[in-house]
Amino acid sequence: MAGIRTYTLIYVALLALGTAKFVFFEIGIPEQAAIGGTVVLAVIKSLLIAGYFQHLREEPRSITYMMALAVFMVFLLTVAAGYSIQ
To answer: Is the entire prediction scored with pTM above 0.85?
Structure first.
């Protein structure tokens, strides 16, 4: 189990990443680049949360692979739903 220092560092990193998402839209970069940066930061934040706060780092690799497969299936379902709407 990670210590208080680790959780504090992860919290500060999540706070910084959340602030960076706001800054992307406030500085003068193109909107598409800001959206792409926001997506990348969201993936990083999700990995930090799943790894540390949901303790996936301490689980056997088979559980991690199962979770990754589930996320991939949700992604495929989302793409299929978006395709059927258009």
So the answer is: no
